[in-house]
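Subject: Re: docking follow-up (flavin-adenine dinucleotide)

Dear J.,

Thanks for your patience while I sorted out the input files. As discussed at Tuesday's group meeting, I've set up the holo structure prediction with flavin-adenine dinucleotide included as the bound ligand rather than trying to dock it afterwards. The sequence and the ligand SMILES I used are pasted below, so you can double-check that they match what you have on your end before we go further.
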Amino acid sequence: MHDDVIIIGAGIGGLSIGALLTKEGHSVRILEKSSHLGGRTACMKFKNHILDNGFHIMPFYKKSSIFSIFKLLGIESRLKLAKVDKIMFHSETGFHKYPKGIRDLLSLSMIPIKSRIALLRVLLPMAFTSIKKTEEWDDLSLTEITKKLDPETNAFFDAVCMLAFADTPVHISLGEFARTIIRANPFKGGTSEFAYPDEGGYDSISKILFQYIQENNGQVELNSSVKKIVIENSAVKGIISGDGTFISSECVVVSFPAYMAINQLFEKNVISQKFVNKINQLNKRTAVIEVHFALKSQLDSRQVVFPVGTHYTTKGIFFISNITPSVSPLGEHLIIAGTPVDPMIIGNAEKTQKIVNEMKNEINQIYPDFNSSLLWERPMAWDLVESVVKEPGLVWKSKMPHQIPGIKGLFFVGDSTVSYGIGTDSAAHSSILCMPKIQSYLRT
Ligand SMILES: Cc1cc2nc3c(=O)[nH]c(=O)nc-3n(C[C@H](O)[C@H](O)[C@H](O)COP(=O)(O)OP(=O)(O)OC[C@H]3O[C@@H](n4cnc5c(N)ncnc54)[C@H](O)[C@@H]3O)c2cc1C
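The structure tokens for the complex came back this morning:
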């Protein structure tokens, strides 16, 4: 095969599969429709601060799929990671430690001692079960276990789900939750710690992958959208770019949400309607409103604070310049506060502003110096956080497969495709899982 492997999209999914392929000597061409790398993790500069595209942290720290890919490529030393482990809850009774292990769970001051024992009874067996066993729980909701627990313990689960999934327990599959607990278990080789690029900006991960791809003779072309994938006789023949040019290739990898791609990139009847309908079911978006605030004083030395309790609109306060000062100019501090919202609210300026005002009032109640320290604020709303909410029945192996049965040379990666993990970790995991399939095809 002489043509390049064409990869559509330069997010974490597209860049990680691109880097893995160039490592094996394959010729790769990545086409990205926007003007920047990183997809949903792209960053911007604003008033000398580095602003992430909403709050982003890397789950599972050096045990994450992203870090595994960096290790596979031999470039882990290029990614300096700041640890995110100064995490606290805030309830009406004050600050409470975020539990990192069993001992912390036993001293979890946020909930009564009786509830801590009940919580341990639920979480401990889960943490020591096998990934295979968790697949039996994929169709059940996390509320199967939380409904038996008291309101304080439910508030704890709400905060954990906000951190891990940007969503509420009712939308989370018990199987996916259990896999997260297993991967957080140090006795199973996991970690509950999170990470963030030390140099500031989550897109640093994409920039390093991009550099690696270029060093290995791969190409990444920005402002290059793909309009159609050409399929003839059940095999990929190439793509048609945004300007109508045909580019020949017998291997194309799609790395943006599959339920969008299969509706946009193919002529009618190339993919069976039954298959399209099944994949469209994965379109269960989470939406968030998040506000960046720049401050002239440091309100807290912690990195993340979760307000807990149903009366709070704000579900997370992330002190980004406490994670790494590189994101802000000297003497200024960057925080981001967020809350999950109904996707219908996105685009409604009035409702968004109301939510932002509620969040500001709440932060000022927790930190009375907040209003007087505020230099500027920048609210944002997103209707697509992860491609697939960790919805019961739509996780892990029920996601978009990496290949469509019967079509040769076409592959899918990214967070909507078969993989487990959270957000960027699942996008990277999909590339690890898809890589042998692409290699096997390229060999034939
Ligand atoms: C506000 C917010 C907060 C988040 N927080 C976290 C977090 O804390 N931790 C975490 O791990 N994850 C988080 N996520 C999720 C994470 O960003 C995504 O899961 C991950 O970035 C998905 O990567 P991907 O490569 O699968 O897709 P994407 O990042 O969406 O990349 C797909 C790329 O394809 C390009 N593209 C699309 N169509 C075409 C076309 N026709 N031609 C060419 N290019 C095309 C797009 O422009 C994009 O660059 C968050 C997301 C948001 C929005």
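A couple of observations from a first look. The mean pLDDT is 95. The CA atoms of residues 43 and 52 lie 5 Å apart.

Let me know if you'd like me to rerun anything.

Best regards,
T.
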